[in-house]
Amino acid sequence: MSDTFFTSSPHWTWWIVLYFFVGGIAGSAFLLASLLHLFGRPADRPLVRLGYYTAFAGAVVSGFLLTIDLDRPERFWHMLIQSNTGRPMFKSWVPMSVGSWGLLLFSLFAFLAALGALSEERPDRRLLQSAPVRALRRRGPSAAIAVLGSIFGLFLAGYTGVLLAVTNRPIWADSTLLGLLFLVSGASTGAAALILLAIWRRAGHPASVDWLAWFDRRVLMLELVVLVLFLLSLGSVARVFLGWWGAALVLGVIGIGILAPLLLERGHRAPAPHQLVRSASLVLLGGLLLRVVVLLSSHDIHVLGSGVTGASP
Amino acid sequence: MMTEPMGFYTDTTVCIGCKACEVACKEWNQLPSAEGGQREMSGNSYDNTRRLDGTHWRHVKFLEQFEEDRNGGRWLMMSDVCKHCVQAPCLEVCPTGAIIRTEFDTVVIQSDTCNGCRACIAACPFGVIDINAVSNTAQKCTLCYDRLQAGMEPACSQACPTDSIRFGTIRELKEMAESRVRQLHALGESRAHLYGADDKFLGGLNSFYLLVDQPEVYGLPRAPKMPTRNLIPSSLLSAAGAAALALLGFVGLRKRRMDGHAPEREGPDV
Lengths: 313, 270
Known about the structure:
The complex is a heterodimer. Chain A has helices spanning about 15-40, 45-70, 95-120, 130-135, 140-165, 180-200, 205-235, 245-265, 275-300. The model of chain A is unreliable at about 305-313 (pLDDT under 50). Chain A has 9 helices and no strands. Chain B is of the alpha+beta class. In chain B, strands 8-1-10-9 form a 4-stranded mixed beta sheet.
């Protein structure tokens, strides 16, 4: 039996589920927008701007969700500053500590990128056309923001799984693949969110959206492979999925969130908007469900170390 | 200034389940009763405390080992507490620096620094820590840090009527425990062994146990580990995945350009 079964749940439930979901979308939305910014064409600009707005909004929501999940939310700054000395608080070996700084820095780059995008979109606003803001749109600074922000965005999408692995809880600490799984799932949900927003806001050139759909299909295939490897890596611990959580994983995450979108778009080189809306919605649902299953299935396990224990001689 | 490491040695064979340690701990540390004292009975044991948490820093486990016909059997009792690990997982992962190692080599959570992120709860291999509903911070046994600073013995070991819980320097406690194991072996109790007295896991436990059954029977993990064991492999796999995703996106854009689908200017929206 895994030694992880003797531990207590940290009660990381719905706020953290949402944070992992939103953080994954925000981080990968920034990456996708940056790729289009760096290697795309002028017609991709509306999607670049949408991606940066999404990333910044996601970063703000992520910070809010993390703060309200604390039992002492007014002390959220203790993650960044030592409360007794006023010096920076940073532990390079603790994902939660690195993640707090990572989210802060990602938020900074997402803000700068979104500000630059807003300046590009609204030439009529004088404040947005001031010299410092216009500087954000220049080739050098905008490329640096895109590259650095993408690094922090990818970090944000994946560190959450590493954070879970660096515990002693069942499922989370029984595999080293959760970081990769959340990262890949974040990429698929980020692309899906941008597809939906682009269609809803009429803010993307069809070729930009087709590229997102192309990217999402391949990431979904990768996600399926990583998910299977994750389950295999759990060994005997995977037996905890013989029940409702397993059904949610197989039917919800794999069936609805991965296989159904792939099947819906099969054979379509450039799926129609209504097909894209349907499959992207399913991808988002599957991505959310993945985090629900991973977090809450472990939360449900509190068997050996804590309860009244009986055993035969 | 560091003094000699101090801790507990708990001989489970002489625990009678009186819970004096639980009461003494609650009284000294002013820990409130749960649900205004109207706590539900567990219904399947005399153990109604059930688990360690933010307001129960001592928990006497009642383990009933009886044959089906009830002719033979035994009670195992064990007063559980924070193990004050030499390499403490909770201290390792605390992102705020709220968890410290004291001059007595014990592990203490500073309530005025903790922000209730609960990382320590997930890291503790023994399920010791939980949130205290009064302070809304993570709490656990301090090994009576305040009493130790005043040269006093912890409340639980002082209250223990059978000396099942012994307090002292780790060196003295180990000698005492090894002598007791030899005595039990000589008396025919060959299952007697020490749990956490050596440095086989977590660098050793400053609260270690004499057990007469497998650790799992007492609700103790056989080989508890540091949470950071997964840090490097998980991070490397994620970094490789991140590089692959960025490359995939780039390849997609290149392919689009090669296929002639790349739009030159802002055209009609979707």
